[in-house]
Amino acid sequence: MESTKQVSTRAEAPEGGRRNPAALRTLDSYLLAPFPWYGLDEAFTGPRRLMQVGTAADGSVEHGATGHGDPSWVRAEGRGGGERERFAVVVTVGASPVRKSPDGTGTLEATSVSSAAWLAGVGLLGVTWPERMDHSLRDDWLDQQAEAAWALADDLAAPDWSELSLPVDGVPSPFHYRETEYGWILAGSTPTGTHLGAYGRGLSAYGLGFCVIKDLTEYAED
């Protein structure tokens, strides 16, 4: 899948509930997407937040993530038995066919469920690297794990994945599901062709439902 750059991070409200300029910039970047964004449905009653979008070389928005529950910070191994975070992150990937690269020298692969699975896997890696690992080794560890995540995402029929049916806009839809020692990963598609990935921990993936986000400001005001 084409490499992307990340635009903004979280959009959190300062004290008093008013959105800060960073939140507004993040919301603006989400509004540029040519596809609808997805999040957890109304059965989830916890906090919601915008996280980040990924763009192509020409600046067009290709994918992005919305957070639900606790902020998905890096998990610290052996932190005194404290409670683990309870969160789920939904990754929306716009449907794109095989197309020419911006410089016209090649072609870009079409997005697929595997694209969503890989983004979800890398997203989970980003908040689970072992605290006891030397910082000088972190990049190498992440690179190795990202390669492994891509290999797994590229073969969704492998035994590492199981099948799970979850509602998308109220319609039961098939998903690929995988558990790791750090959390779970989901990947599937919507009835309209948009691809969905998700990752999380502390919340059961089996009880989740997804729907189009009708008002993004509900996420920007977290």
How do the helices and strands line up, and which of them pair or pack?
Blueprint: E1 5-7, H1 21-31, E2 38-40, E3 48-55, E4 61-69, E5 87-93, E6 99-100, E7 107-108, H2 113-125, H3 135-153, E8 162-168, E9 171-179, E10 184-189, E11 195-201, E12 210-212, H4 217-220
Antiparallel strand pairs: 1-3, 2-12, 3-4, 4-5, 5-11, 6-7, 8-9, 9-10, 10-11
Could you characterize what this model shows?
- The protein contains four helices and twelve strands, in the order E-H-E-E-E-E-E-E-H-H-E-E-E-E-E-H.
- With 222 residues, it is α+β, with helices and mostly antiparallel strands.
- It has one domain (6-69, 83-220).
- The strands form three sheets. Strands 1-3-4-5-11-10-9-8 form an eight-stranded antiparallel sheet, sandwiched between helices. A two-stranded antiparallel ribbon has the order 2-12.
- Helix 2 runs antiparallel to helix 3.
- The protein is globular, with a radius of gyration of 17 Å.
- The two termini are 31 Å apart.
- Mean pLDDT is 77; it is low at 1-22 and 76-82.
- Residues 1-20 are annotated as: Disordered.
